[in-house]
Design a protein that fits this description.
This protein is an all-alpha fold. The chain has a single domain, classed as Methane Monooxygenase Hydroxylase, Chain G, domain 1. The chain contains 3 helices and no strands. Helix 2 packs antiparallel against helix 3. The model has no long low-confidence stretch (mean pLDDT 93).
Length: 90
């Protein structure tokens, strides 16, 4: 347990940030899952709509500092690739 006033404040800040990051990371996973489920179901329109939402939200989380820029780019790229492969198969 921390004894210094500054260390106690850092503990409070870390706890707050951890909760915030966990909330947004969970939300991001659910958004990504929605895209993958739409692709698995073969619903092209739903997949494209879910992809638009995912793209917007993931880049929003970059600006909030939840994830890094390259991580977001990688996730969005993989989702685009998945949806595009579905279009070719159809």
């Amino acid at each position: 347990m921390a004894n210094h006033k500054s260390a106690l404040k850092r503990m409070r800040q870390t706890k707050k940030r951890t909760e915030r990051n966990r909330f947004f990371r969970t939300r991001m996973k659910n958004i990504i899952k929605a895209v993958r489920e739409a692709v698995a179901a073969g619903d092209k329109e739903k997949a494209v709509e879910a992809l638009k939402v995912a793209n917007k939200r993931i880049h929003e989380y970059v600006s909030k500092g939840i994830i890094k820029k390259n991580t977001a780019a990688r996730k969005v790229s993989r989702l685009h690739k998945l949806v595009n492969s579905m279009e070719e198969a159809a």
